[in-house]
Description:
The structure holds two protein chains of two kinds.
Chain A: E1 8-9, H1 14-19, H2 21-34, H3 43-62, E2 65-68, E3 72-77, E4 83-88, E5 92-99, H4 101-105, E6 108-115, E7 122-129, H5 130-145, H6 150-155, E8 160-164, H7 167-175, H8 178-196, H9 198-207, H10 209-226, E9 230-234, E10 237-242, E11 247-252, E12 257-265, H11 266-269, E13 273-280, H12 291-294, E14 298-305, H13 306-316, E15 343-347, E16 350-355, E17 359-366, E18 372-377, H14 379-383, E19 386-392, E20 400-406, H15 407-427
Antiparallel strand pairs in A: 1-2, 2-3, 3-4, 5-6, 5-11, 6-7, 8-9, 9-10, 10-11, 12-13, 12-17, 13-14, 15-16, 16-17, 18-19, 19-20
Chain B: H1 13-38, H2 42-68, E1 71-74, E2 78-83, E3 88-94, E4 100-104, H3 107-111, E5 114-120, E6 128-134, H4 135-152
Antiparallel strand pairs in B: 1-2, 2-3, 4-5, 5-6
Amino acid sequence: MTEPDGWRRLHPLSPIVRGGRGTIAIAVIILPTLFGARRSSNEAIEFAAVAAIVGLGFVSWLVTRWRVDDDDLRIETGLIRRQSLRFPLSQVQAIDVVRPGLARIFRVAELRLRMGGATGKTARLAYLHEREVDPLRDRLLALARGTAHVDEVASARDERVLATVPTGRLVASILISDVGIMAEAVLVGLVLGIVLAPSAAAGLASGGAVWILSVFQLVWRRFNQEYRLTVVEVADGIVLRGGLVGLTAETIRPGRVQAVRMVEPIAWRALGWCRLEVDIAGRQRAEGEGRAQRRSLRAVLPVGSRAVAEELLDYLLPDRPREQTRPPSRAVWKSPLRYRMLAWGRTPTCVATTSGRLRRATNWVPLEKAQSLRRVQGPLQRRLRLASVHVDTAGRNVHAVIRDRDVEEANDALEELVASAEAARRVA
Amino acid sequence: MDSNVNWRAPSPRLITVRRVQVVVATVAAIVVAAVLGSRGGSAVAAGGVCGALVLGIAAEWFVRRRIRAWGYAERADDLLVRRGVMFSRLSVVPYGRMQFIDVTAGPVERSFGLATVRMHTAAAASDARIPGLPRDEAARLRDRLAELGEAQAAGI
């Protein structure tokens, strides 16, 4: 499938896999007709529609091609509106290999390059043959690093498993998480309804079927994504591997973690469990993009004990603040609920902030990643002589907010953090 | 942080620009109130017009305070931008973090020879903009920020 000048095409089956559920639906409609099991009155129309869809898929495959230049990936696509996309490899933040269930059946995989920079786009090669995906990923990572030799990477393939999640604990954690509890409530409601008032329950269930299904889908998606998630340290950074039906392997380049967040929902706190997520650079407001691209905040540890989380944190942020200080007591008037959790701490290279009441969240931001700093004071804060300091990062979801501190302290913190960030940037 | 730096402010003409915009909006609101109110009798119409007028005066007072609060300062390694009366903000944007700089001017701003400079970093939250700069000052600031940004550029 190689053209003379190095341009390559995607796997010929890509349109089918990309169609996903649509493909399955078409198969369900068309197969009975084909084998004469069902006589349809408007066979001709059905066939025409399916032929048109298949034709469009084929054309989209035909006009899409890609090529790796010295230091960028180029993708050309579109028949009527021709697009030529260029992705500089030095801006690659992470490379994902994604294999949904349908793709695994056809032995293909999608390669996703998550880019930083002003646009923060995602380059997608969907789909490639399974066997060419891993070599291509290694080659792209090597090019991104500036070394063109892949053999050296292959030899440096020592892996070290940093953390993994036992399935039992994952199930338990989902059952007592927010979506889990919602799904259980729906389930109990349905069962009670069927026992007590079957006719009313049936009406309710058919009316809210979409809503009920979406709740269960949320639970399923979470389980499917985080099943046996393993964090591995390799030469190219860290790799997150996991999945039940759909598999993902995500390689985050070293030094590309913008922020780390530890979340402790109230039900997990009693068990001493927490969830650890990393944020990498990318576009914040993803408009007109699929769900798959928006989901960028990836759990490195879907659920784990504090000790495991600390180990991972030691690896991700060796120099992080251990102690945090509390805000003045008058801050309770401004943030009555989260006051109990509010705190922040700093070292010369890292800031940590804690907030939240039902879901306690601790955010760490390495100061070399700070894009800008802001001091903000609202009317209520002015009355109480409080102010907040924001540390903005290029990540999509996690920012450190030092909330409701004494004005003097906030001013000093801003000044010191600006100086520390400056110093951290120089070292980096 | 506020005391030992040299703060600069948007052009006083920006107040005129905003005043023009407030007056236009107020006149429009008065006309609408008068037309709609006339159906319900003269008392309703008078009430509507008075309401629109009061809102216009309040907006004028608010806009003036808001513009007075705006300021920026160029330091050795970063740009400071402060703004806001009710919610006061002070942004610190290191030159090396600026990805690109926009200079825009709407029709009203342009007719007064003013422009808005907006700094973009890789973080969407760090939205720093300075409205109402005289056109040559805006161009100078843009060139200087671009130059400093290039000299101190740091990777994400």
